[in-house]
Specification:
796 residues; alpha/beta; six-stranded mixed beta sheet; three-stranded antiparallel beta sheet; 30 helices; elongated
């Protein structure tokens, strides 16, 4: 026994040291990446517009990813809304396309995206124009295929006009006509350089009213060119681009080189070898609209050319408090070290006199635990803010392929099975098993979010089952506690609520987001309160009371009936639902930043019965044990061999049936409508498969269980330090290396989540004491802090 305890203690110490070393490594990596990105910003600038227009890659077929920022996909509605928004606030929408037939392609694509009707007819070698008074838009194409006196006069005329009549955006570029006209001669290239130097001064003079975007020339497909264009070679194109870079690089004009990379990647789709394919034009127009609109529209998935959100007063106050905690922790550390040294020295001297060993001292232990925990949390919050409320770190769009999703899924599953261990727990849904369940579900949900797999309906529906399963366990676990303990004290209620909400409340302050933004915590907290009220309301029911009075089983069934009835009424009556959840001041717990309750109603409705299923399962499990129809006090199978095989077979059929349903249902609306009624089938099927055979019930994956113990922190922290742009994109610490980037960001993210879990565990003991006077004092202190914030934000 002594050896066993010694071995267990050694494993615990080894685990602790490994975790602490991992966190130290994560901190060093974060520091290194901050320095690395600081150098990048210093050397290349931090303008995400420059990133958008200069570089990028194709992560998959016909999917363009700009360097370091996220590009929003503008539909016709989005584009027109942008133009209307700009004009509504006094801006101008006058965009000019100046150049040859390649620039004309862009004009038609841009105008058609914004026009209510298709525009196609035109006269060759002529100017074109399109206007739309509804959105105060004027788009024009000026046919000037060469950089010569003709183009010079256009800029000169703009300069002579009033600023409000000039275009506020000019997209220009030219070279192919110069090459063709002079048969690719060196003289033509020299003239091109001279003419650019003559036009360049106009860019500086027009900069206050007009943004100039010079488009570098796309490569050609030489084998597809007509005979009269055979002199337009890629070597010639490169020479002209080199001249444009040399002459315009230090001008106020923006150089658009990423369009060339797009055309290079899609050049085989070009019809005549010189003009862009439809796919390339689409990407170019999206880049144009992102550069023009993003900073005005603030799309969550469009960080290119978008400024960081302004910092609020509440964020400044929160940061100041964390800074005070950090400074205080340093001061306390120095004080404690000196005090410990002095006390140890004093006790050593006394020990020498008395013949007793010195006793170590820990001065100000409680104060140190609180301040140091808050200081660590402050450092993590600073990293979170830096990742997702600034443009310091890069962000990229999500990109889904079957390989991107299923490869990490398979890897994680194999890794989890590799860490399978025996457990001494044999009851149904014991703690090791539920931790494991939460862990692998959370990892699958993380992969789902990272890859943007929500667009694949069967995967989406299976993820919905995982979320429902978490709520099922919420109902099961809390019902079992209340039924077995019969304890409904305020202290435990507050402890559970604190553990669930602490991180989210802090993030609301730090990231300036409403409580409902982190929808899962409001959902879990709400359903915990429903379970608590259901069990706590008179008559108080518990295992011991039911054994004393058999009618309590009937009362419990009546409580279930009332609960299901109320939930159903709330679902059927939108007016009743809004009267409950839109009452001041609790309304602000359920609405999003645009004061809409639609998101809460959707999430609530989707899993409205999941917690009830968990409670009913717990109640049924207790009755089966009481009637001795089920025996899980030993590692054997729960039932006879024949019954066990039947139940496991039904479990396999249940999971297979739900998978078939998820494939056959036509759309998300249809699937979601049926979800709440049938989700118990795959959940109960999994419970049967996992628990009926003793060999499965007495084993668990320690790997998955470890993640399950920090599942809530993982779910919330992913919003800002694994994903980006409020979950709409992916955080990028190592650009251009997506696999390595995911590995590094995952490591830091997991370490941060684990530390947040530890900080919460430390603080809950101080924030929610078991002694009622101290608890009441802390509740009043919390309300005193929250009240001014609520008043400022219009809650009252």
């Amino acid at each position: 026994m002594a050896d066993s305890r010694s071995g267990s203690a050694t494993r615990e110490i080894t685990y602790f040291l490994n975790v602490e070393n991992a966190k130290l490594l994560a901190l060093c990596m974060v520091t290194g990446f901050i320095m690395y990105h600081g150098v990048i910003h210093f050397k290349y600038g931090s303008d995400s517009c420059q990133w958008l227009l200069s570089d990028g890659r194709f992560p998959g077929y016909n999917i363009w990813q700009p360097y370091g920022c996220m590009m929003h996909e503008y539909s016709k509605e989005d584009a027109r809304r942008c133009m209307h928004y700009i004009s509504y606030w006094g801006g101008r929408n006058h965009i000019a396309f100046l150049g040859d037939s390649r620039i004309r392609q862009l004009y038609f694509a841009f105008a058609n995206l914004l026009s209510k009707t298709e525009i196609s007819a035109y006269k060759a070698w002529s100017d074109l124009s399109f206007t739309d008074s509804d959105i105060s838009l004027k788009v024009e194409f000026l046919w000037h295929p060469m950089v010569n006196i003709s183009m010079y006069n256009v800029y000169k005329s703009w300069l002579m006009n009033q600023p409000n009549t000039r275009p506020n955006k000019v997209v220009t570029g030219s070279a192919t006509w110069c090459i063709k006209k002079d048969n690719g001669s060196k003289t033509a290239l020299d003239n091109y350089r001279v003419n650019l130097t003559l036009i360049r001064p106009f860019y500086a003079k027009l900069k206050d009213s007009t943004d100039i975007l010079w488009m570098l020339q796309d490569p050609v497909v030489e084998e597809k060119l007509n005979g009269n264009r055979s002199m337009i070679t890629n070597e010639q194109i490169d020479s002209y681009n080199r001249v444009a870079l040399e002459e315009l690089e230090k001008s106020v004009a923006q150089l658009w080189s990423s369009s060339r990379l797009v055309a290079q990647g899609l050049k085989k789709e070009s019809v005549d070898g010189i003009h862009m394919s439809d796919a390339a034009i689409h990407h170019d127009i999206q880049m144009l609209l992102n550069s023009y609109c993003n900073d005005k529209m603030n799309h969550y998935d469009g960080t290119c050319c978008s400024s960081a959100e302004p910092v609020t007063t509440l964020q400044i106050v929160t940061a100041s408090l964390f800074l005070v905690c950090l400074i205080s922790s340093v001061a306390l550390y120095i004080y404690r070290r000196r005090a410990r040294r002095n006390v140890a020295k004093s006790r050593a001297e006394n020990g020498q006199r008395n013949g007793q060993p010195p006793v170590p001292a820990e001065p100000l232990s409680s104060c140190w635990d609180i301040v140091f925990s808050l200081a660590k949390l402050g450092v993590i919050m600073a990293y979170i803010f830096l990742c997702d409320r600034t443009n310091f770190f890069m962000k990229e769009n999500k990109y889904y392929t079957h390989v991107n999703f299923f490869l990490p899924f398979a890897y994680v599953m194999v890794l989890g099975f590799f860490f399978t261990e025996n457990t001494d727990k044999v009851t149904v849904l014991h703690r090791d098993q539920t931790d494991e369940w939460k862990g692998w579900m959370q990892l699958v949900i993380l992969i789902y979010h990272l890859t943007g797999a929500s667009k694949v309906l069967p995967i989406y529906m299976h993820i919905r089952v995982l979320v429902s399963a978490y709520l099922f366990m919420t109902g099961y676990g809390h019902f079992m506690y209340f039924w077995n303990k019969g304890e409904y004290g305020l202290a435990r209620f507050c402890q559970v609520i604190f553990r669930m909400n602490f991180l989210v409340v802090v993030l609301c302050f730090v990231m300036d987001r409403p409580y409902q933004f982190y929808y899962f915590v409001p959902l879990v907290s709400y359903w915990y309160m429903v379970v608590y009220i259901t069990m706590a309301v008179w008559p108080h029911l518990s295992k011991s009371s039911a054994e004393a009075n058999q009618m309590h089983y009937v009362y419990m069934l009546l409580k279930f009936l009332v609960l299901v009835t109320v939930i159903t009424l709330l679902f059927l009556s939108e007016i009743f639902f809004e009267k409950i959840f839109l009452v001041h001041p609790i309304k602000h717990l359920f609405v999003t930043s645009d004061d809409s309750i639609h998101e809460w109603r959707f999430r609530w409705s989707l899993d409205r019965y999941s917690v009830v299923y968990g409670m009913l399962f717990a109640f049924s499990y207790f009755l089966l044990k009481k009637k001795r129809l089920l025996d899980d006090d030993n590692p054997d199978t729960l039932f006879s061999r024949g019954v066990s095989w039947l139940l496991v077979s039904l479990g396999v059929l249940g999971i297979g049936g739900y998978a078939t349903f998820s494939i056959l249902c036509k759309n998300k609306y249809q699937c979601n409508a049926a979800h709440s009624y049938i989700v118990f089938v795959p959940i109960l099927s999994f419970v049967l498969i996992r628990n009926v055979p003793g060999i499965l019930r007495t084993k668990y994956s320690s790997f998955f269980a470890w993640f399950g113990r920090i599942s809530l922190e993982l779910f919330i922290s992913q919003y800002h330090i694994w994903l980006a742009a409020d979950t709409h994109g992916v955080l990028v610490l190592i650009p251009s290396y997506p696999v390595l980037n995911v590995i590094i960001t995952s490591f830091i993210f997991i370490c941060a989540s684990h530390e947040i879990n530890r900080v919460t565990s430390v603080l809950v003991a101080f924030a929610v004491p078991t002694e009622w006077k101290a608890l009441l004092r802390n509740i009043l202190a919390f309300l005193a802090i929250l009240l001014p914030v609520a008043i400022v934000n219009g809650v009252f």
